[in-house]
Amino acid sequence: MRYISTRGETEPLRFQDAILTGLAPDGGLLLPETIPSVAGELESLRGLDFRALAKALLPKFVDDIPAADLSALVDQAYAHFDCPDVVRLRSAGAVQVLELFHGPTLAFKDIALQFLGRLFAYILKRRGARLNILGATSGDTGSAAIAGVRGQPGIDIFVMYPKGRISRLQELQMTTVTDANVHCLAVAGSFDDCQTLMKGIFADLEFKRRHALGAVNSVNWARVLAQVFYYAYASLRSPAPVSFCVPTGNFGNVFAGYIAKRMGFPIARLIVATNENDILAKFFASGRYRRGEVRFTVSPAMDIQVASNFERFLHYHLDGDSEALKAFMADFQASGEARLPRPDDGAFLATAVNTEDTLAAIGDVHRRTGYVADPHTAVGLAAAMRMAAPDPLIVLATAHPAKFPESVSEALGASVATHPALEALRGRAERCASLPAKADRIKAYIEAQAT
Q: How much is the pLDDT for 246?
């Protein structure tokens, strides 16, 4: 299996090279040359637990790492989750909730980043190489990435986040980590500013080469691949093709579901649930992709106006026409707006949920079922309430409610969202650098700190 760039100007790469490369040299995102089909294997896969299913799927995408080594990486990645089967399906009234937050940082990002951290260490050890990871986070990616690589030999990690625009507990999960290879950068701006800085720095190919930069954001294909596992797992536990309602801002999580659907897993449709930053909802309704001002909400990980993984979907929407894709992205870059025919294959539905409806969903679901949802999961629950889909419906629960205690308490009128691992962070010493949203300042910091 080789990996190609959405922009068509990068030579195909083997899996290990694709993972270390992150963002393709031509500025595109990497995808497998072909998507493997499981259409004839569903019954044999249906009885597998999460880890066994991951081990069965990985060799379909990875042919330059022995299957035994992949199996060991899976075991290492998920050894410290507090749920026996890594993820958990729970009932929340008329829908099911797929809890993805049972990893070390209590967010769905752990499922991909615990695996990616081990994968990085494995590849670097085999090659005798070093890696400086540069990432941008709107909240959970940063802490999960840090948890995946903290203390790992041969790796330094630099995480940019929008100063004052993530929850305090999310920040503490990053800034209280004392390992010398961890560097937190509070950037004066929005998450979109952080993401733009990251892509600009990766586009400086000489700087990227000189400092061996790697990506931990969902621009890295391994992030998407690991997220495919839980769509496969949940779909195989449904008696009929299932629809997933996915709270999303950067389109990475829901795109993994799209890959799982294209592989042949029994998935009816994917519901894209955004907050008031509704660029994706508007695209699936109209075909217009238009950047607006970032709105800061109670679901901060979704406060995004430029969805980096959307380019991967465009590759398939445009039937692999890289020239058409580049023209679309150039229009968007120049004017903040671009248009295409609206997707009409039935794979996606989309809706935007405002703050009032998000808080109402937390309260409504709790009153009816006793289930406590964080505000990101609540965006998905509110969206699901609007969709009278005939299929079984699963809402992805992306974070433990204790990560957002203020919003949950506001919605429920009581303080019910706590977790001992989070409470233990309060009062700890912090390490963080505050920097302006300027590429030269970020580069200078990396040059000064990288080993």
A: 98
